[in-house]
Amino acid sequence: MKTNSTMGIVVLTIIAIVIGAFGSAYLIGGQGQLSTTENSMVVNPATGQAMAPWAKKIVNYKLLVSDKYTGADVTATVKVYKEKPSDWENPRGDFSDAENYNIYTVTNGEALINKEFPGTYYAVITKDGYNTEFVSFVIPDGTGRGDISDYQQSPDIDVVEMTQEGSTTNQDAEFTLTNATSKELRKTVLVTVDENTEFRGWKVIVNDEEGFSEDTDGDGVYDEGISKFKITVGSQTKTVFDASRSVDEFDSNDKYQFDLSDVVGSDQDLTIKVDIVADTSDSVGANDEKWGEGEGVLSYIKIYDAQGNLFETTAIKA
Fold it and tell me: Which architecture does CATH list for 52-162?
């Protein structure tokens, strides 16, 4: 009997310990759930699904912004979107929709992003005189991370290098003509991008300044003696006019436009090349069907950068 009594006491003690443990968990966690620490998985009461530990917390992120060529801090403006803007990666886009972004300022080369929950974000970074930068980044949700207070003191970082808008000194393509010839003429101009700037191409517009693509009398010989006109800008080569193949790309305003996406860095060259087949003569007169020296500008090549600025104007002349 004594043995049975001892065993009963042991069993009762074990049961009491188990009940006490569950009771404590109920009281601590609330409504029967175990309590959670700041960095453990929590349950969304609305869905019953597990959530990341920082899912409902404001979490810091940091952008470091500097000049690519000089290393100097750039005091830029950062617009941070939760949804990708419709004009994403278009520096000429409209980013004035203030209701869709939070705005931050870069100070001493740093922008502390401290108004956002975990997730993917899209930053449009601008400064007057600089090429616009587009950066996407992910604010962590705490999964596999340490204590959030430690993270907030040293958050994740993204490095952004900005460049000043490209600039150069204009240079024309001037041809030296040999009288009474009809041959292909070629001229190449190297446009050097100024130090510590970067050219990013958008488009090129070429015009017919002298009306060389017109055949006024319909005799098959064009008014300025030009029978072929081909240009190269950076990586793009375009035959704009070729009488022998009935090619005439000029529109009703005597202009032709094409896209240019080249990027040319500091102290590097953007190549502009012009190929022309022309009948030449000393005589200079309207519709004389010859190209003569001093006759004026045959065409302008206008090159625009990604920000929408006119970067370079090259005049083609004899």
Answer: Sandwich (2.60)
